[in-house]
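Researcher: Batch entry, complex prediction.
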Amino acid sequence: MSTTATDAADAPAPAGPLPTSPAPRGERSQRRQNLRDTLARADVRFSPYLYISPFFLLFAIVGLFPLVYTAFVSMHDWHLIGGQGDFVGFANYIDVVQQPRFLTALRNTFSIFLLSSVPQVLAAIVILAILDANLRAKTFWRMGVLLPYVVAPVAVALIFSRLFADQAGLINSLLGEVGISPIRWHADPLSSHVAIATMVNFRWTGYNTLIFLAAMQAIPRDVFEAAVLDGAGRLRQFVSVTVPMLRPTIIFIVITSTIGGLQIFDEPRMFDQLGQGGADRQWMTVTMFLYELGWGSQKSFGRAAAVAWILFLIIVLIGMINFLITQRIASSGGHPTVNKAAARAMAKSVAARSATTSSASSSTTSGGTR
Amino acid sequence: MSVSVPMIAQTAGPGAARAAARKRGHVGGMNRRPGWVTNVLLGAVILLSAYPIYYAFLLASSDAPTISQNPVPSLIPGPNLIENLTRVVTSDIKFWQAVLNSLIVSGVTSLSVVLFATLAGFSFAKLRFRGRRPLLVFIIATMAVPTQLGVIPLFIVMSKLDWTGKLVAVIVPGMVTAFGVFWMTQYLESALPYELIEAARVDGCSMIRTFWHIALPAARPAAAMLALFTFVGSWTSFFWPFIVLGSSNPTLPVALQLLQASYFKDYSLIMAGVIAATVPLIVLFAVAGRQLVSGIMAGAVKG
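Model: Structure tokens for the complex:
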């Protein structure tokens, strides 16, 4: 690279803080030349680090440090306004775990998560089969399924809490038409979980379908050609070729939606106007519990931090289990190209989802996943 | 996607070609237009994704008594949309301030993410330095870290800085994202030829000028998509703004929560708020939805 710098000196170069006019030959200019060489070398050497540093700085300050510091806060009496109190060891953890609401919150979170992830992946696969057909105006239909993605989770929750109203709600009156008695969406735990999971599914199914569609394009054509030669029809091709080849992508979407889905807050928070998760906390999630401990009547950051740290460990644990399963599946089958595509799709979906869940972190954008 | 019959004849012999042609005729080959089942299902999917939004619009143009009497709203909008929107704007949720705040937060965040992510992406994709690979892997791995769980210390930090209730508390944590860096690295790897960079260097450009005059223009299509995704994410985000801004200086989702808390019985008003908060993104979607779709598709298509 030093050659570059020398060349640059011959032609009047606008680089850096150095004078740009060609200097007269002599000792002075020789020294200046050396200085310029040094600076150019430093530029080449350090610029790359400088350019990537914003991410690392920001991640350290708003991502990593808070996460680690959460453990510290959780070991103390810590009041929202009063600030740091005495060191209490694991008292906050013991206190939190003994609250019946914690178990309720854990149950609700997992229930909502299962009700939103499993049907969502199944629905996405069915819609994928439809969108994969040789349609006219492909982009139009793809935009159609993506439309819910631009509606904020808060707005989705407001719309659906009305659709799922216990009295005079649209869903209940449609059910009445077919002879099903009204469901108490805001009273029964499971019903409320279904309603909340529907909000998540509404917003994310189309998005995930497009990720599948993208991963599908990376499946080598010869596989389909072979299927055609073997006499497979469209349906058979889809079931026997497309879906197995998409398995890595499916697994990755499940993993990423686990990370976000277990932190769900917006939709259950907005399911009624009180935002406490129902009279018996029947749809209160772990993150809502965290919020209630920290910013509710108790204002106990210590206990809220304990909940955050427990949830973190649960997410890590589930992530590791997922990872092990994925490893086995990935090594036992799956085309390398597909895996690459899947990894990329995963990264994208995490990012997109994380941004929506919160902008508090240094990761990017969307709803279920972080 | 299609394999022509002659091609099959050439590669797999005439028998296979005949079989393929037969299959195509009867069962439906890859080129056939979809049948009515597909069309009906497609219609149902589109209906399911569009109706709830239209439902919000119908309620927003109605009034409270009509809504409580008709669980299934008439498909024709009512006459009260303007009136309801006016009530949202004049209610005590600081609507205009929320709009302005959302515009500022989403706009600044998008610009900043694009700038820093392109800078880092340029570095990772085209510059050689020690630790390049592991650092990139680290960044990708951070996407799996549930950083939202760090809200409590983050809130403590923001209080110490006296940033609570201020937009800067929402903007700063989102200024650069792992996804953005990863995305721009992917794009620039293939879209920016080394020759261009070398040419600029030979002409005496410093690194930063090379970035500004060569890499940034080359990154424009991907940068636009990244800006779009960041804007949507930031506009719709609730948890952190809700905690750190509160009701005194809300963004739109926070304002919607306030609207629900104060007027939960009046669904025409709440839905008018939903429509007012959603329409800007719907317009954006109508203009740039094509880019969003191809943005999601792009990664894997490039193989």
